[in-house]
Amino acid sequence: MKFEFFNDTGRLVSIHPGTKTSGIKCDMDSIKPLEARTFLLPPGTYPWVKMWDYGEERGLSIFVSAKKDDTP
Known about the structure:
This protein is mostly beta strands. It contains 2 helices and 5 strands. About 10% of the residues lie in helices and about 45% in strands. The strands form 2 sheets. The chain has a 3-stranded mixed sheet with strand order 2-5-4. Strands 1-3 form a two-stranded antiparallel sheet.
């Protein structure tokens, strides 16, 4: 499954390292304003997303994880 995030925040969004270690495939470079980023999830999963705002100094961070889809 693909999940696409569009950065309309006007700020740089870094990607939490746990995104890659959870099995998601993506470009780990920070997402620039007005840029879209595609996250490739393992088959049979759906995205679970969390964002943090660390303020102007540290910026925004996104974590994408794959949740198993158990629906019949």
